[in-house]
Amino acid sequence: MLVTSWKTATSARRWGVLGVMVVGIWSAAQAQAPKNSPNDYIAQWSDVAIREMVAHRIPASITLAQGILESGNGNSELARVSNNHFGIKCHSDWEGGRTYHDDDAKGECFRVYEDAAESFDDHSQFLKRSRYESLFELDITDYKGWAKGLKRCGYATNPQYADKLIDLVERYELYVYDDQALELMAKGEALAEERKDLTTSRMTGGREVLVSENTIQYIIAEPGDTYEALARTLDMMPWQFYSYNEVERKDSDHAVEAGEVVYLQPKRSRGQEAWATVQDGETLWDFSQRTGVKMKAILRKNRLNAGEPLVPGTKMALRWRLNQAGEAPGWRFWVE
Asked: Measured between alpha carbons, how far is 253 from 249 in angstroms, rounded to an integer?
């Protein structure tokens, strides 16, 4: 009995030593395993972020910046083991796998995904909750607005969260992936328009409704038109006219000039054409109404400040954001 006990104890000690050695070897291997850099992460997940932007209208730049920040370039335990790149917690509606980590509280439940790409889609679905609906009123390429909006809506508690996202977008030029997604979206919209076989005009409320080159429905204002009166005639709400035409609602009965374009749908964040030339006497609002591209998008794409007058004859970018040298991909910014 004593011999057996001695042999058992000796064997246990040997296995204990062996176990420590195995753990040590595993830990050393883990320590020596190469870590992903931000560029590694971008190369691996940019296509997924672009796909999510096309499907859900969430800037790819923001998705990538959040993934880099929250998963530590994909190196965090939650990302490596649970394929959760955005730290999304279980919540009451989650029916998938679960894991537990200390976060705001001890032992909090986090979601586990079979594939990391699922966490990207879940992240998009998460941001489509009512809590974040104000973000979708922003220009889709306004990564600064999205970053600040996420912080304002309570996505993260870190007071520097928005600044960190903006720094990542600009340091690694993640806005390039927004432009790539927009190009895919434009192609998809063009195909959809071809399939619908839209006619150039139709009649609504006795008014001819036209379709612009940028595929937005509009009418031409007649003498005496106001947004309030048009709302009654066309069975719309007054706020839609103010919003779609980017007019501040300072008075209750905004008058429009005869011959003016009045949009019945929101303007786009980019144009069908790559460039448009500023005409004599044209303000930013005039240029925006003529091209069907939102004013904020025009300012951002051309690196202009709000209130800065447009120079007649200037070639303005409508599809791509100019770099510091005034160039867009494959083009050059110039003034005739």
From this structure: 9
